Amino acid sequence: MDIMGANLISAALEQGYLLIDTAEFYNNERDVGTGIKQSGKKREEVFVISKWWPSSEGAKGAISSLDRCLSHLNSDYVDLYMIHAPKEGHCGEAYRALSDAKKEGKI
């Protein structure tokens, strides 16, 4: 974890930012989770977006990434979860798996 990153997220939230955009690829989801906690904001007061970088693992990779994201954010859900730079291949499987995750309340 990058303490400076968490401090910047916390400061932004304290100044009125209400949306945080992160991604596993950015390697800062832990900073976002720590920054939200540090700010004293309730999780439901902050809209968090994260993204999965498509891999050959398809649906399995998308769900594994989502679960890591939730763990890093220390949250039961993320407000919006997208496929980062979708391309042909396993994205259809991933979309279906993420749709199921939405029904489960993870998104």
UniProtKB/TrEMBL annotation:
Domain NADP-dependent oxidoreductase, first and last residues per copy: 7-107
Residue ranges the record marks as coiled coil: none
UniProt GO MF annotations: oxidoreductase activity
InterPro entries (UniProt xref): AKR, NAD(P)_OxRdtase_dom_sf, NADP_OxRdtase_dom
Domain of life: Eukaryota
Signal peptide: none
Alphabetized Pfam families for the sequence: Aldo_ket_red
PANTHER family the UniProt entry points to: 2,5-DIKETO-D-GLUCONIC ACID REDUCTASE, ALDO_KETO REDUCTASE FAMILY PROTEIN
Protein's name in the database: NADP-dependent oxidoreductase domain-containing protein
